Amino acid sequence: MHLVNQGHWRPAIVGLVAMLLSACGGGGGGGGNGGGSNTVAVSGVVSYESVPPAAGCRGLDFAATVSRPIRGATVQLLNASTGVQLGSTVAGASGSYRFTGVPRDTNVTLRVRAELKDPSVPGWDVDVRDNYVEGGSDNGQIPPAGLFTRPLYVADSNAFSTGTNDVLRNFTVSSGWDGVAYSGDRAAAAFAILDAIYQAIQFIRATDPNADFAPLDVFWSVNNVGSASLDLTAGEIGTSSYFGSIDSLFILGDADDDTDEFDRHIVVHEWGHYFEDNFSRSDSAGGAHFLGEALVAPLAFGEGWAHALAGMVLDNPVYCDTGVPGTSEGGGFSTETANLGTPGWFNEISVATLLYDLWDTNIDGTDDRSIGFQPIYGVMTGPQIVTEGWTSIFSFATELRASLGPDDAAFLDAQLDREDIVSGAELDVWASNETNDAGVPGNISPLILPLYTDYTAGEPAINFCVDNYLDGLARHGNNPGEDRYLRISVPVTDEYEVRVVTTTPINPTPDPGDRDYSDPDIYIVRGSAPELVGAGSSDTPGFEPTFRTDVPLVAGETYVAWVEEWRFDDPLTPASFPARVCFDVSLGSTP
Amino acid sequence: MKHSIPALFLGLVLAACGGEPGTDPAAAGSNGKPAPEAARTVKPMGPVQIGYRMVGAPIVGQPVAIDLEVRSVQGPQEITLSYRINDATAMQFPEAQPAEVSLAARTDESPSLQQVRVIPLREGRLYLIVAAEVETETGTLSTVTAIPIQVGGPATRVPQQNGTVITDENGEQVRVMQGER
Q: Is it the case that residue B120 has pLDDT exceeding 50?
């Protein structure tokens, strides 16, 4: 169940802003003068210092800092002495703002709020807030109490007098960099994040003018650090990421560790996960992944999608991840040309370059056409949502191919061929004819392909195995072979008794803290709804998943199950735990 | 309306599949499974996997060794390891510890092994930054990881300041940053 942003008082703010806007005429309305009137107009452009990456993504290039307009953000005019708001408007697409009817000879301050508000339907609602609380801790609670009302970033100009004539006052929000280090407020950061998201929203709107964006909160702090554990209140955010359960992005900001606010591709990449989660469907498990690594199909697709979308939105295929400001730390890759790891359906780079090349107009080898974004958007917001299988390049490409004309379909096939992914008439959502097993040894290959194992509900248990051969050093459980998928046919409408029994001999110690016992998990979904019909994921030792499905399984429908050994995901699993574990899985008809 | 399966079954799949290296058991379920809400998509790491193991317990003033395993997902290739300590008051390197090491390509898929030593200067949760860099067809890529080194009691982290939190006239908390120097 999606968690609503409890305690979020955004509607009140939206209403207030709308009221103020109408009161002061919004941006560009009305007109003051410097004649006999007691009021003047204050207008100008709000912008922020944007710091680009250095060549090769080797750090940030502060010497190349440019001003970019703050587009779509709320701009307030405050009495500098009292803090009372004199007006509020929304910056235009060029960062322009205008207030009229402003009292003469008054000291005022411009305040730009790190928010994008369009309260109409369809509309959008984005806040950039500070998750960090000094001395605070939430012990890993998601979301921490009060998260959505934590301070919104705002940037204030220096005070100035309105004088007796109309005032032109531009305001560029500083990065806080003094040439050597950050010494001032890092005010531009929140607006850099906001601007990347503004661009993403506009990119989608260009294809779908009626796209309605669910509220999004972005949390950034100068105290947000990379961490092994999660404590959002303490700034330990893991890394820059998207939390689907709370529709929130968290972005790194600790200048001694890693900052991502100016890494626009990272911001849009994470926003791409928000898009997939809210506009499409994502079955991605998330979690750790290394560029070029062989990943489970939903994760590879989700990450590749996010990379590709970032390149499209920013019209720049070069993904940069710069490191500590003032150093040459960092790296990147081109979504146009990258070739990392073994190509295939399991490689996020393969998915990224494929999707990007479908869109871009640059001629590059077999990439000699463009289908534009409309067909991609159409599949993501249409058939991908109700695909019977898990979301993957197979579900996406199958549906996309069906929507294209012959020439574009051939173009898609060429891109699939280039990435060593099954194509043409052999392509289907089940990867039935896929032969690329990531180059694993022969004894591992049968655990990776076929991607789905057929099973009929009510039949005797089926035995199959999972194996962590591809997991390497990371032990994150995200590699092919560690999860196995069942395609389940249902002959009789019924609730079913689900059982997963480990058949590999494992002799754990009596202490459950040793984490040396098998812990199988299973999830069963009807993709065409989509709906979850049953899940067994207890971590109690010796408690194998055994449960009755939450709802009857409908005869004639196709269901999918995801079965895994949780120990493969657990970094504290002892080395003595088997690399391969087998299960009996059954769905028994109930009386 | 969300359609994502993780949203439907609240990341149970995701939590199960999404555990990251070094996930803190304290923030997880009784036996290490993260809370479902903690499931998240994260930015990618570079193409080098880094594993580590502390050798012994870190003690203030005494060198402690950390065994590293690194492997490129691109297959055997030369890897450059570099080490960094952000807080010079927290740790230092022994004189004999090079700041950068070049590891020759392995002849097989096994990881390269390396050991690094640091000297903790105070108690708390300290971090050694390890960057593993490889060449790719399109340039250099690196994986950077912060290895936590717990010395004695709990961490004492010095927060950085950025602006001032006030409650504005609408009753909303805002963090006011001075936008002009």
A: yes
Question: Could you read off the pLDDT of B25-79 as tens digits, one per residue?
Answer: 333 445 566 666 667 888 888 888 888 888 989 999 999 999 998 988 888 889 9
The answer to whether A172 touches A273, Cβ cutoff 8 Å, is no
Residues B138/A232, Cβ–Cβ less than 8 Å:
no
Q: Is B153 exposed, middle or buried (0-12, 13-18, 19+ CB in 10 A)?
A: exposed
d(CA B48, CA A343): 17
Which of A156, A216, A222, A303 to mutate: most B Cβ within 10 Å?
A: A156
Predicted ipTM beyond 0.85: yes
Q: Which of A58, A340, A535 sits opposite B12 (nearest CB)?
A: A535
pLDDT band, residue B7 (cuts 50/70/90):
low
Residue contact B26–A570, C-beta within 8 A: no
Q: How far is CA A288 from CA A125, A243, A247, B39, B110, in A?
A: 29, 14, 19, 11, 20
Q: At what angle do helices A188-207 and A297-313 cross, to 10 degrees?
A: 100
Comparing CB atoms, the residue among B10, B29, B180 nearest residue A158 is B180
Whether the CB-CB separation of A369 and A408 falls below 8 Å is answered with yes
The pLDDT tens digits for A23-78 are: 333 343 333 344 458 999 999 999 999 999 999 898 999 999 999 999 999 999 99
Whose tokens are 């979850």? That residue is A532
Distances (CA, A) of A311 to A31, A199, A306, A314, A386: 41, 12, 9, 5, 26
* Predicted TM-score of the model (pTM): 0.89
pLDDT < 70 stretches in chain A: 1-36, 474
The SS3 of residue B160 is: coil
Contact check, Cβ <8 Å, B21/A483: no
Given an 8 Å threshold on Cβ–Cβ distance, is A324 in contact with B86? yes
Tell me the longest C-alpha to C-alpha distance in chain B.
Answer: 67
The Cα A282–Cα A298 span in angstroms is 7
Q: Which amino acid is at A195?
A: D
Amino acid at B6: P
Contact A296, A351 (CB under 8 A): no
Partner-chain contact A519 B143, CB within 8 Å: no
| Cα of A123 vs its chain's centroid, Å | 19
CA B61 to chain A, closest CA, distance in angstroms equals: 23
